[in-house]
Amino acid sequence: MSLFLATLGASGLLLLAACARSSRSGDPSQDSTRAAERLAMVAAQVESRGLRDPHVLAALRAVPRHEFVPEHLQGQAYDDGPLPIGAGQTISQPYIVALMTEAVGLQPGERVLDVGTGSGYQAAVLAHITPHVFSIEIVAELAQSARERLARLGCGVQVRTGDGWAGWPEHAPFDAIILAAAPERVPPALLQQLAPGGRLCLPIGGVNEAQELLVYTREPDGSFSERRLGAVRFVPMTGEAQRER
């Protein structure tokens, strides 16, 4: 697998509604252009690389990615790469979002924890599949802006400001957990907060060493199986993860 760049994040708290399928600029031609860009993005960057989950493809075609990047970068929102979102963080490239979402096999009605809210794009994609989305962001300013953005777009997500290393035990167990920053080892709390059959997708590795995208599944007997998806490059997980190095 090629080397792909991704995102960081983790924070906030607020209950919203269910994810809007599109945004409205007030300009029908612009809305039509953005919709066409989403379709092209999914075809060229996601389906062409072998991803096929219909829930994931539908979510990426529907969620207005340009709403989750700074205004001056909206023209690049559907490009094949990450973009800066402020506070030294990025929004992951579309393929990485699709890959991690497909890797956890999220189904409608399942509970999912998104560790690393960032601008809220991954959470919005998840909320297009299931109404039970919980998201943690460690950078307070990102958490607040993501809350406001997700609320404006009608996404049903609970956003909490805090350190994702400990997960969100009050809402566990989760059927799926996605971590959008790289710790050097798997946070034990995230494994323990998986329901039987639950899946955790995360990158593992240090800042100056090879990182790998892994999926852990909690088996019926409580043990964990591991699946390796290949090499990636994510920003490091901050907070408690830094003290664990």
In the CATH hierarchy, the architecture is 3-Layer(aba) Sandwich
Report the major sheet.
Answer: 7 strands, mixed
| Secondary-structure-derived class | alpha/beta
Mean pLDDT: 89
Rg result: 16 Å
Q: Helical residue percent? A: 25-40%
CATH superfamily: Vaccinia Virus protein VP39
Question: What fold name goes in the CATH topology slot?
Answer: Rossmann fold
Gap from first CA to last CA: 27 Å
Question: How many beta strands in the DSSP annotation?
Answer: 9
- The first-level CATH class name: Alpha Beta
Described by the principal axes of the CA atoms, the overall outline is: globular
Query: SSE order in H/E notation?
Result: HHEEHEHEHEEHEEEH
Low-confidence stretches: 1-18
Q: Beta fraction of the residues? A: 15-25%
How many helices does DSSP assign? Answer: 7
Whole-number count of domains: 1
